[in-house]
């Protein structure tokens, strides 16, 4: 019987066969000088084999030469450890007022109706859903939403919609004694200030408020609050030129930059003049008058009929009304309050 080949450090001598059970990296008998995967070290990453292909580097989750999971931690993809959930914020204030009473006082209905709103899961306090009827809150500090709309709980905060007449300045006072907005709300005790402006030759909806944050956001270009106007313009003949709408939507270059409308609609047209509806969020001074002048159709009359979700409606000239409830909530939501 031929004696078994001698071994040196677990490796067969040159020309010998691998030990029983050992396989070569190619799956066949090892060639001269090749190391077996069972008896020797695995081939280094990138070292060419007999087949001419480099070995794949070991990846987490799999041995050399095999594809791993691809995750640098070896965890199952899609399972992210987020830690224990944060406990819900306790919005209950033992010294506060019952939530249903606060909602009823804010004009959302009777206490019974407000209790049903809470039980139905439609009320949030400081971002937390409240369904228990015993919760008390501080109306001066709590931020309450019903159906996603902010509820104004502070009685001292007032927002008004006013129908500004022609010839009235968009100011709360005037040192020269000219007619101004302050004259139209002189009977109110709150310290009101106007949101935006309408020039003296224009009329229609303007907002007054004691809420400084709301006023700043409504006037800020970041929120792009749309405003709707009915504009009477001069035309040649009895029709509005077909290109006018496309021209206004595309934009016209003014002395302080380009201006464009968001929407254009012809309401009526008669010989010499036409009534159009424009919607735009640009709040620059006299921008509509300058825009129409540049388009070749001067403004004859201008009435603002809507600001965001607030409509002028049938409010008479020189009169005002309080904005409250869901209408105020919609206005606040339009500027992310």
CATH class of the domain at 159-222 and 313-333: Alpha Beta
Q: Helix amount, in percent? A: 10-25%
SSE order in H/E notation? EEEHHEEEEEEHEEHEHEEEEHEEEH
Mean pLDDT: 80
- Strand tally is 19
Shape: elongated
Radius of gyration: 38 Å
Poorly predicted runs are 6-40, 45-55, 57-81
The gist of it:
With 337 residues, this protein is an alpha+beta fold. The chain has helices at 99-105, 111-119, 181-184, 212-219, 243-250, 287-294, 325-333; strands at residues 7-8, 11-12, 97-98, 123-125, 128-129, 136-137, 144-146, 149-151, 159-164, 193-195, 203-209, 227-234, 252-254, 257-259, 263-270, 273-280, 299-307, 310-311, 320-322.
What's the structural blueprint in terms of helices and strands?
Blueprint: E1 7-8, E2 11-12, E3 97-98, H1 99-105, H2 111-119, E4 123-125, E5 128-129, E6 136-137, E7 144-146, E8 149-151, E9 159-164, H3 181-184, E10 193-195, E11 203-209, H4 212-219, E12 227-234, H5 243-250, E13 252-254, E14 257-259, E15 263-270, E16 273-280, H6 287-294, E17 299-307, E18 310-311, E19 320-322, H7 325-333
What does this 3D model show about the protein?
- The protein is α+β, with helices and mostly antiparallel strands and 337 residues long.
- Among the domains are: 55 residues, RNA-binding S4 domain (Structural Genomics Hypothetical 15.5 Kd Protein In mrcA-pckA Intergenic Region, Chain A); 85 residues, 2-Layer Sandwich (Alpha-Beta Plaits); 82 residues, Pseudouridine synthase (2-Layer Sandwich), CATH 3.30.2350.10.
- Strands 9, 10, 11, 12, 15, 16, 17, 18 and 19 form a nine-stranded mixed sheet that branches. A four-stranded antiparallel sheet has the order 5-4-7-8. The chain has a two-stranded antiparallel sheet with strand order 1-2.
- Helix 1 crosses helix 2.
């Amino acid at each position: 019987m031929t004696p078994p080949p001698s071994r040196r450090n677990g490796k067969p001598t040159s020309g010998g066969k691998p030990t029983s059970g050992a396989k070569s990296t190619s799956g066949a008998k090892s060639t001269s000088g090749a190391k077996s995967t069972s008896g020797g070290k695995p081939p280094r990453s990138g070292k060419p084999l007999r087949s001419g292909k480099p070995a794949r580097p070991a990846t987490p989750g799999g041995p050399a030469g095999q594809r791993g999971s691809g995750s640098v931690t070896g965890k199952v993809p899609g399972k992210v450890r987020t830690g224990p959930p944060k406990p819900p914020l306790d919005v209950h204030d033992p010294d506060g007022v019952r939530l249903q009473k606060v909602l009823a006082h804010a004009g959302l209905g009777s206490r019974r109706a407000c209790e049903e709103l809470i039980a139905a899961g439609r009320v949030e306090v400081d971002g937390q859903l409240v369904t228990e009827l015993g919760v008390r809150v501080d109306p001066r500090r709590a931020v309450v939403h019903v159906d996603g709309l902010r509820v104004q709980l502070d009685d001292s905060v007032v927002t008004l919609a006013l129908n500004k007449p022609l010839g009235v300045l968009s100011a709360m006072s005037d040192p020269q004694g000219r007619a101004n907005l302050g004259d139209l709300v002189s009977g109110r005790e709150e310290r009101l200030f106007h949101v935006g402006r309408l020039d003296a030759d224009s009329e229609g909806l303007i907002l007054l408020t004691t809420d400084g944050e709301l006023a700043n956001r409504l006037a800020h270009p970041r929120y792009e609050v749309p405003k709707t106007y009915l504009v009477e313009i001069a035309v040649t003949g009895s029709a509005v030129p077909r290109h006018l709408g496309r021209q206004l939507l595309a934009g016209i270059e003014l002395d302080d930059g380009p201006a464009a409308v968001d929407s254009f609609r012809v309401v009526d047209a008669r010989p010499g003049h036409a009534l159009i509806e424009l919607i735009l969020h640009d709040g620059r001074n006299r921008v509509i008058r300058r825009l129409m002048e540049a388009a070749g159709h001067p403004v004859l009359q201008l009435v603002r009929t809507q600001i965001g979700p607030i409509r002028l409606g049938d409010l008479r000239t020189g009169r005002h009304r309080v904005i409250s409830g869901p209408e105020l909530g919609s206005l606040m939501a339009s500027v992310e309050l």
